[in-house]
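Quick one: structure tokens for this chain, please?
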Amino acid sequence: EPVLHKVCHPVTSFDQKLADLLDDMKETLAKANGVGLAAPQVGILRRAVIVVNDQDEMLELVNPEILAQEGEQEGLEGCLSLPGKWGYVKRPEWVKVKAQDRTGAWFEVEGTGLTARCFCHELSHLDGHLYSELCDRLYTSDELDELMEAQETEE
């Protein structure tokens, strides 16, 4: 989708329209059994994301920006916008994000591991980037199964 390659506009109105968008995104994410969703993935060019953290809470991040990051992890990533595909991506192990909530109040949140990965993945969507730009290749489900079986055999 062309919208996935565009830079999103900041949210300036903290109104019912934004609340409806965030609620719809949460519902979409829950139905897809995903861990993160950005507004451009549902066709809206606004800086808003939902991330499921380590406590299985859905965090609403409006106008988010990464303040700090440390460490490194490499792992598999998938995306609701690229169904049936996965790739190995390097991301920071720890990330601190500043964002606004649905009322416009600023807050900071941090995460490690999968949460840090999700912060980076979803915020990249807001600048028109996909994880597929960061990995050497994309794997299909079958290829991934074969790769995992080969790794298990080696161990």
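The CA atoms of residues 12 and 57 lie 25 Å apart.
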